Amino acid sequence: xxxxxxxxxxxxxxxxxxxxxxxxxxxxxxxxxxxxxxxxxxxxxxxxxxxxxxxxxxxxxxxxxxxxxxxxxxxxxxxxxxxxxxxxxxxxxxxxxxxxxxxxxxxxxxxxxxxxxxxxxxxxxxxxxxxxxxxxxxxxxxxxxxxxxxxxxxxxxxxxxxxxxxxxxxxxxxxxxxxxxxxxxxxxxxxxxxxxxxxxxxxxxxxxxxxxxxxxxxxxxxxxxxxxxxxxxxxxxxxxxxxxxxxxxxxxxxxxxxxxxxxxxxxxxxxxxxxxxxxxxxxxxxxxxxxxxxxxxxxxxxxxxxxxxxxxxxxxxxxxxxxxxxxxxxxxxxxxxxxxxxxxxxxxxxxxxxxxxxxxxxxxxxxxxxxxxxxxxxxxxxxxxxxxxxxxxxxxxxxxxxxxxxxxxxxxxxxxxxxxxxxxxxxxxxxxxxxxxxxxxxxxxxxxxxxxxxxxxxxxxxxxxxxxxxxxxxxxxxxxx
Length: 481
Prior knowledge:
Blueprint: H1 20-45, H2 47-54, H3 58-83, H4 88-106, H5 112-140, H6 143-175, H7 185-198, H8 219-227, H9 230-262, H10 272-302, H11 308-329, H12 336-350, H13 352-363, H14 369-382, H15 388-404, H16 428-470
Helix pairs in contact: 1-5, 1-6, 1-7, 3-5, 3-14, 3-15, 4-5, 4-7, 5-6, 5-14, 6-10, 6-13, 9-10, 9-11, 9-13, 9-14, 9-16, 10-11, 10-12, 10-13, 11-12, 11-13, 11-16, 15-16
Membrane topology: Multi-pass membrane protein
GO molecular function: transmembrane transporter activity
Main location: membrane
């Protein structure tokens, strides 16, 4: 950001009023992000029904989400390149239309391979929106206002994910078929397309910072400059760990709670739909608290501690890890206590969302922010929520085979609540629960690793932010970071 250039009217981050058009634009972006994440996790809310329909195990069940995220992350760099150069509204319209259409068509599929293919196509559509939308907010606002608008935008992620469980499970219950769980968000997607086309404003790139008509550089040069930006690299690595945990918990969380609850007295016949509903409410509530809390802490602490943003992310992960671990350990012993533990763990995890997005925007030049968003999406999803559902599912299936063949594992001693059980006495339900439980323990380890990456970010963030603010040239749009 060039501090010597005056900010245009209504674009400052402090005292200038926010225009009605800007408010409408932010509302539309938040609405689309909400239904975007609703669509992602609708399948998670009806996963058990889907597995029964196609007669698949945990590995192929996890592959449904992995296939979606793989196509999502592969296409993100393409839309990042296009988003830095072409009309962003039309790109978003294309994306929303594609994922709405393929979700709706997929609800009529009666073969696993076709359903898997339809979920992968959904990822292509969502890649366009998720890559581009944050850069529009960045080009409309700066400083505190931008941070607050990003918090509002990313607030839709946990809330939308929670609604996905609820909409999927409740629609399946009301209409008596899991297929109807996939037919709600496409209708909302059509509404979103009309709003984007006729009500949304698209600002010029760099407009909020007085840098209109920026010159673009080659895509390869953009990537090389981003790689040299250590704050961006380390924060992306930390966010990858967040994505891994979020993906594994969002996909398998309702399932592990359901399997654990079935083994408790009086809950033997509980349905997955009811547990998915409870998990969705927990996820929504955690998002309502966690995302705004992260933004609040950032605003309050960053004034006195310039390294506050990555430190908040790191501490949030370190707090979340033991709570989620204990929630998994006690999942077959207590129900309401486990809900509380997961709730606290998700609040701490949700501190990251808006802060990581803000870090990217204030350490990267406006003319390559879409590329930076795409690069972060590619990395974080490749090693995060693209791999975690399938990886956890594969580990779970491997452990099932070991348990059924009476092969003892040193890992069994980790489960404090079950250390007296003998593997040879496991019933099938117990084996299914234990195998998924052990596999999900990996998430807590990944959270600690993510905290380390954010501590590394804190070491460089002040210097990289200063470079981004002082080196940007309004004449040629060149920026070494």
